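Input/output pair, single chain:
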Amino acid sequence: MNSEEIISYLPYSAPFLFVDKIVSVGAKSITGTFRFDESLDFYKGHFKENPVTPGVILTETMAQIGVVSLGIYLVKTEGGDLQHVQIVLTSSEVDFYKPVFPNETVTVKSTQEYFRFNKLKCYIELFNEKEELVCRGKIAGMIKS
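Output:
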């Protein structure tokens, strides 16, 4: 399964799609990128004179690449039906270290902790363009096909 195929199965669209490219994917890990264009609506009010990407959006980016995209890959490799896949996030625990500004591209790296009984839990890190750690944590979700 390639980057475009995985992205085509994501249950999101603009302006709430936070995946530009899947760089690599395998049974235990995934890496992907997203560029936060300055025209995104949330920058207009967060913060007035110095816009930064909200933490909830960074968490969503981590989840879309690190759990949902990896989950789609895993379901497909196990022969599951991706036409009706549903993914529900069940928990997240994320620590933040640095801000992400408009027009920055981030890289998300996710490693599977477990995938059983349709539950996927991953350890996920998000890096800025300087390869500095921005945030990291664990995110889990249920996958139904």
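The beta strands are 21-25, 29-36, 86-96, 104-116, 119-127, 133-144. The radius of gyration is 15 Å.
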